[in-house]
Amino acid sequence: MGGMSPQAKAESLGIKFEKQTPGYLNLCIRSGNQLLTSGHVSDLKGKLGQDLKVEDGYKAARNCAEKILNSVWNVHGTLDGLKVIKVLGCVNSTLEFSDQHLVINGCSDLLHEIFGKESDGYHARSALGFAQLPTGAAVEVEAIFEIK
What we know:
By secondary structure, the protein is an alpha+beta fold. It has 3 helices and 6 strands, in the order H-E-E-E-H-E-H-E-E. The model has no long low-confidence stretch (mean pLDDT about 95).
């Protein structure tokens, strides 16, 4: 990471941090020393193995990660001082599609890049296929962070 903090690294990658207006559900809730996020859906809609390829899904998963980081920033004020604990990635896919893990790498790779693959970004993960996701989104991701 060359000594760059997670917040500075994320900003250097062009990730936007914007204040959120509270809605129907809490996008990121603090419980003790953990931050748990709601599922964040990709802007991209569609089904993997049908109209979308792994590369499309990979970008969609990265998009989910960027949204998650914005929600975390809204609660914590910074990405600094956090450890990524767990990621759950949901992929809108056909019954035949079995590369969900390669899709969710779009999220994991970004978290590794920002928080460090061998340190605070080294997270546990599940990548699952779903028959459908809300609004027809290609990918939905939720995450848990620890406040160090």
